Prior knowledge:
It contains 21 helices and 16 strands. The protein is of the alpha/beta class. β5, α7 (193-201) and β6 form a beta-alpha-beta unit. Residues 435, 456, 458-459 line the site of magnesium ion.
Amino acid sequence: MPDGPSSPLTGIAASPGLGVGPAFVLLPPDLTFETRSGQDAAAERARLEAALAASRADIERIRERARASLGDEHAAIFDAHLLLLSDPELDAAITAGLNGGLNAEAALVGASDTFITMFESLDDPYLRERAADLRDVRNRVLAHLLGKPLTALADLREPAVIVAHDLAPSDTAQLDRSLVRGVVTAVGGRTSHSAIMARGLGLPAVVGVGEALHGISPGTVLLVDGDAGRVSVNPEAGEVAAAQVQMQRTAEERARLTALAGREGRTADGLRVELAANIGSPADLPLALEAGAEGVGLYRTEFLYLGRDTLPDEEEQYRAYRAVLEGMAGRPVVIRTLDVGGDKALPALNLPPEENPFLGFRAIRLCLARPDLFRVQLRALLRASVHGDLRVMFPMIATVQEFRAARALLDEERARLTAEGVPVAEHIQVGMMVEIPAAAVLSRQFAREADFFSIGSNDLIGYALAADRLNEQVANLYQPLNPAILALIGQTCAGAATQNRWVGVCGEMAGDPLALPLLVGLGVTELSMSAPALLPRREQVLKLDAGKARELAAHALTLDTAQEVEAAVRSAFPELAQREPGA
Ligand SMILES: C=C(OP(=O)(O)O)C(=O)O
Ligand SMILES: [Mg+2]
């Protein structure tokens, strides 16, 4: 382990809080090798057999852990991997290479890659999935041959900070949250899977650290600061002690707030404000429920689709949606249909790169162009609807026609299921994200069609101010409190009110203490946020005077700048001057 402290690594602050622990490095090892000919076939065969046996033992161990913590479904993928290890056709191709004098590495890779290329060239999603499995298995055996065994999150036994290139949904499925002190990744942004997963699980995270991460060796002590986007490598004792004091304070504050978990969200003067959770998978529910989520305000279903080469089928989707609806036991669950494109790539669709992906073929645009894919999701949602209070939400709606078209597909699938005798809930609210300024401006018209609006402030701010938050050069223009943003939110609420529709906010702004009185004052009655923000925001709502919030919001709309708005909020609510830790 390297000893002295080195300069801290910086990245994107993806999930708040502090965490310290030894690095658990998931970065893939360098698997390059030399191809050699004229080798002793028997000796190379023996090396290969040893690597196969070690790989088999690895996979069996991971499978048992996955089965124990997550159930049979998650273990099935590892059964497929075990079958590949003993596949006779693959073995015959490897044997031919060995008999031709190749070293075991070259024989293995040559044979596997022939099958991988063949599977990938066929337009069959099942075989493409087999290609991905085979690549996984090939890498594992190769790693053993090279004496650089792969690590898996399922191998985590001691508290640690996870260091990875990125975390795929299948990685996080194996993660034991109680042992993870923090997450640091080389790539990714605020909306990457790793970031959202970390926020959902309440783990401090810094993402997008870059290549520098590859220099971290296993066991190196790391201090992750998820608020500042900083990772100290081998921190000084004093720095660790200060962080521990801060963590203790945060834990005490959390314990105090836990007493509020069962309280209904309602302002001091009686206005109902529902406090709901944003989730990315059913695995996020326990933390959301612990924090007293009164519903799920945003289930980002794209995480079922990302980080894999194939699309989830209707059954897989149905099971995930049903698990969330049942987990929430009758409380409202807003499930958002597929929102890919922009910064969320969908490898299974093989879409060509675009000049302006954020203004391009994404979310509902893609779904309406690919009804074959969209209908599968809609059917899964409709089938799951009988298990709770499902609300379906369409993302990135820009025009009224898009909403109508999406709703028409939903209605068609409903009619089809009913004709097939499949039960579907009688009433399902169907709403939309308001994250494109045009939708906010036209909210009166949209309110005649949609049952509710949920404001996606992350995108709304970016599109309204034409500023990408991840671009350092223009980050100062990404201003949640800009009066123009407040005006768009106010306009959305006013349009909704003409038809008695409810308005929520499910972007990051919902969890921001400075924005909260403004949102409530503008007419928002549901706030959906990552689980760790729920308790502090509940305390804030319980103490809030909605009348005073309305006066503040009306005043804010007359101001010129985001800075003036912030000053007005702080002067109306001086207790907000202090940032609470970990919120
Ligand atoms: C919630 C939102 O959607 P996402 O962050 O998933 O784009 C948003 O844009 O605010
Ligand atoms: Mg969005």
